[in-house]
């Protein structure tokens, strides 16, 4: 009991520690906490005295954690998450009675495939929830989960932070999509035709190369990428008028092929498949409303 009520033990110090661990910068930690830089510096000094370790060492413009700080990171984060759950726990959640807005980030390629069910329910009045959809790049998604502006991130996310939880929704692969009226190729497309026609490349971060180019390089060949776009759903519309190829997630490609009269072919090389997951901040794991959202996403994924 005496250890718990030790006057030197202040939960605000743990919040400062956690913010510094995330931002690696005193000014950004202060901004995240809504306090002054001097307050963060003072709290860090108290922490160093309490722990008997520097905890963070300045390296250029960054504050790098010491080995002791790295060992403390997970148990202190769990402590903060537990306190948050205890102080803000929801008793239950009824989506037909309670209003709630969820903010979800996922590429537009997955919005069309995965989210139509929950959006249809919301539109038909069965639910009192609303959904705000974003398409953030992977780094921005993780940051938005941390600062609380994002409830859920969905996509190919092989690397998450230790305070994020993950659930795999389904496995996906890529196929080739084109307009057979403009690209006179009969599926399955061969490697020669795949590299002969220009490509319109989807890219979450922009740029003109992707994992496809790595696979082609391993085969001793290359393709010509004529253009790239971050807007996956624009690609099929462009293909109705342009003699180009693209490589898209298979479920989106099938949806667009059926709607626009486009053709699908397996890729002329094996790329395997990958996991599409949803991730969220661990502070929301025990929330009934957030749990309802995750269950709803899992139900939609099971239908694919």
UniProtKB/TrEMBL annotation:
<dbReference type="InterPro" id="IPR000847">
    <property type="entry name" value="LysR_HTH_N"/>
</dbReference>
<keyword id="KW-0614">Plasmid</keyword>
<dbReference type="InterPro" id="IPR050389">
    <property type="entry name" value="LysR-type_TF"/>
</dbReference>
<dbReference type="Pfam" id="PF03466">
    <property type="entry name" value="LysR_substrate"/>
</dbReference>
<feature type="domain" description="HTH lysR-type">
    <location>
        <begin position="9"/>
        <end position="66"/>
    </location>
</feature>
<dbReference type="GO" id="GO:0003700">
    <property type="term" value="F:DNA-binding transcription factor activity"/>
</dbReference>
<dbReference type="Pfam" id="PF00126">
    <property type="entry name" value="HTH_1"/>
</dbReference>
<dbReference type="InterPro" id="IPR036390">
    <property type="entry name" value="WH_DNA-bd_sf"/>
</dbReference>
<dbReference type="InterPro" id="IPR005119">
    <property type="entry name" value="LysR_subst-bd"/>
</dbReference>
<dbReference type="InterPro" id="IPR036388">
    <property type="entry name" value="WH-like_DNA-bd_sf"/>
</dbReference>
<keyword id="KW-0238">DNA-binding</keyword>
<keyword id="KW-0804">Transcription</keyword>
<keyword id="KW-0805">Transcription regulation</keyword>
<protein>
    <submittedName>
        <fullName>LysR family transcriptional regulator</fullName>
    </submittedName>
</protein>
<comment type="similarity">
    <text>Belongs to the LysR transcriptional regulatory family.</text>
</comment>
<dbReference type="GO" id="GO:0003677">
    <property type="term" value="F:DNA binding"/>
</dbReference>
